[in-house]
Design goal:
Layout lengths: L1 E5 L11 H18 L5 E11 L13 E10 L6 H5 L10 H12 L3 E7 L3 E9 L16 H4 L2
Parallel strand pairs: 1-2
Antiparallel strand pairs: 2-3, 3-5, 4-5
């Protein structure tokens, strides 16, 4: 299987903790590799994205604001229409890690989008709200250095 990172070097600090975010990404990677052939490809990427009145409607489920995005994209089989409709249902999802990721990301104020197309694969996009540098703090409310947020 081919694997590559496409990481933005200046990702915005965002409202999340490194450990839980890493666990979500690893679960998504495990789910993606389980459905792919040996000649498949997996990409993990990061980007900064702003949703405003001019583009928010182009992204179903998006919210207004600035977000750091982590994407796990696989070249495996696309989700069927029925699978796609149940993707966030933890009981019925064909990929429960995606349903679990949605719950975890939403709990901390973010959101998740899933795209899937036959012949291309599936992409799971995790969006975490940007935190202004002056107000960066731990989820428990205590302050922390900016460098720790970007971990």
């Amino acid at each position: 299987m081919r694997f590559r990172f496409s990481l933005l070097p200046e990702l915005w600090p965002c409202r999340t903790e490194a450990g839980p975010a890493a666990a979500i990404v690893l679960d998504l990677v495990g789910t993606a590799t389980a459905v792919m052939d040996a000649d498949g490809s997996l990409i993990i990427g990061t980007r900064n994205i702003v949703f405003d009145e001019t583009n928010v409607s182009d992204y179903p489920g998006a919210r207004l604001g600035e977000f750091a995005r982590i994407t796990v994209r696989d070249s495996g089989p696309a989700l069927s229409e029925a699978e796609f409709e149940r993707i966030f249902d933890r009981e019925a999802s064909s990929r429960p890690a995606i349903a679990a990721a949605a719950v975890a990301v939403e709990r901390i104020g973010g959101f998740i989008r899933v795209e899937s197309a036959e012949g291309i694969g599936t992409a799971v996009h995790l969006y975490f709200a940007r935190v202004a540098e002056a107000s960066v703090e731990r989820l428990d409310g205590s302050p922390r250095p900016i460098a720790e947020v970007a971990e």
